[in-house]
Design brief:
Number of helices: 11
Number of strands: 12
Strand content: 15-25%
Oligomer: single chain
Length: 342
C-alpha cells in the first residue's frame, strides 16, 4: 500500500532495527505521528500477535477476543485523554496504511486486554456462566532497585524480568525510545501496538527508572476509574520525580493491573517501593539500601484483604531471609538469582 507524502514524512522521522530477536524502535513527534510510526513499522508483529491472542482468549476465557475489545471501548474510551486517543488513532492508521485494517477501537481493546482479562473478568465472569474459565494461573516475575551502599558505585540500579506464558511473552520484545512533543522522552520494553510498556520497564530523561511486579491474586476493580495503561503511560511521560510519579499514577486508580512499583531517581540517588492496591497502599523511600518485588505483598492488610491467594508468602520470607543475611557481600549475586529462579 502506497503511503501519501504526509505519511512518508511521518515514517521518515522514525527508525527500526532488528537484532537478536528484539525490535529496536525510535519514534518522535506529536501524538498522531508517534502512533503512526510505531504501528506502521510493527504491522507484521501486531498482525501475528492479534492472531494468537484471538485464539488464546477463547481457549482461556471462553469468550471471543472481540468481546473484550467491545467491553474496553464501552468502559474506557470516553475516559482516555485526547492526547492518547490521537496517538491510538495514529496507530490504527499506521497499521491500516501497511495493509492490516485496524480501527482506534481495536487499538483500545488491544491495550486493555491484560487488564480486562486479569482484573475485570474475574469480577463478572459468574454473570456469564455458572462455571466460567478463569484463565491462566501463576506469578513468577521479580525485580529490584538498589542504591547507596547496595551498589558498587553508590548509584541507583534497577532491573526486572518479564515472566509469562510463551504464547504472549514472545511479543514482549520491543525496545522503544519515544520522543514526544510534550513531556519527557523515555525508553521502554513494550509490545507491538501498545502505548505503554505493559511489561513495565521504563527509563525517562527526567532521571527516573521504573519497573514493577504485579500483585498476585489481586481482587478489586473500579469500572469507573482510569485504565492502568493510560495512567502508566501518562505518569512516565510527565512525572519529574518519584513523589510526583506516585501522585499521578494514583489519579483515577481503578485497581487494574495492581502492582508493586519499584522506582529510582538517578539525579538524587533515591529509590522507592510503592505497593498500589485499590484501597490499601504503602510508599517507602530511601537513599541507601534496596527494595524488591516478587508478586507477593509486603503490606499484611493489602495481602489479607485484597488478594485471593497466599501461596507466595513463602517466596517473600525466603527472599527476605537471604537478602538480610547476605546483603553486604552478595547482594548482586542474590538479585541475579532472584531474577533467574523466581
Amino acid at each position: 500500500m502506497t503511503l501519501t507524502d504526509t505519511q512518508s514524512k511521518i515514517v521518515a522521522k522514525a527508525t527500526k532495527k532488528d537484532a537478536n530477536g528484539w525490535h529496536y524502535l525510535t519514534v518522535q513527534g506529536d501524538p498522531y505521528e508517534i502512533g503512526f510510526q510505531h504501528d506502521y513499522l510493527l504491522t507484521d508483529e501486531f498482525r501475528d500477535a492479534v492472531r494468537v491472542y484471538t485464539h488464546m482468549t477463547l481457549e482461556l476465557y471462553g469468550m471471543d477476543y472481540s468481546f473484550f475489545v467491545n467491553q474496553a471501548v464501552k468502559m474506557h474510551k470516553d475516559k482516555i485523554p485526547e492526547e492518547y486517543l490521537e496517538e491510538m488513532q495514529g496507530m490504527a492508521d499506521g497499521f491500516t496504511a501497511n495493509g492490516f485494517e485496524t480501527s482506534v477501537d481495536d487499538v483500545i481493546g488491544w491495550n486493555n486486554w491484560m487488564e480486562l482479562t486479569g482484573y475485570w473478568w474475574p469480577q463478572v465472569a459468574a454473570n456469564y456462566s455458572n462455571n466460567p474459565p478463569q484463565g491462566p494461573r501463576g506469578s513468577h516475575c521479580s525485580g529490584f532497585v538498589a542504591t547507596g551502599s547496595a551498589t558498587r558505585d553508590g548509584k541507583p540500579v534497577i532491573a526486572h524480568k518479564s515472566f509469562d506464558n510463551f504464547w504472549s511473552d514472545q511479543y514482549f520484545n520491543v525496545c522503544e525510545e519515544v520522543h514526544p512533543t510534550n513531556g519527557h522522552a523515555f525508553k521502554m520494553q513494550t509490545v507491538p501496538g501498545y502505548i505503554d510498556s505493559m511489561t513495565d520497564f521504563y527509563v525517562t530523561d527526567a532521571g527516573l527508572g521504573i519497573t514493577e511486579t504485579t500483585i498476585a491474586g489481586f481482587v478489586g476493580y473500579d469500572v469507573h476509574g482510569m485504565p492502568e495503561f493510560i495512567r502508566a503511560r501518562k505518569v512516565t511521560q510527565y512525572a519529574n520525580n518519584i513523589d510526583q510519579w506516585v501522585k499521578l499514577v494514583n489519579e483515577g486508580n481503578n485497581g487494574g493491573y495492581a502492582n508493586i512499583w519499584l522506582l529510582c531517581n538517578i539525579n538524587t540517588g533515591e529509590i522507592a517501593r510503592f505497593e498500589q492496591g485499590l484501597k490499601y497502599q504503602e510508599l517507602l523511600e530511601s537513599t541507601d539500601g534496596f527494595y524488591y518485588g516478587c508478586n507477593a505483598c509486603h503490606i499484611v492488610t493489602l495481602s489479607m484483604l485484597t488478594t485471593a491467594i497466599m501461596i507466595l508468602i513463602n517466596k517473600l520470607v525466603h527472599v527476605e531471609h537471604a537478602l538480610k543475611n547476605y546483603y553486604q557481600r552478595y547482594l548482586g549475586q542474590l538479585m541475579m538469582a532472584l531474577l533467574r529462579e523466581s
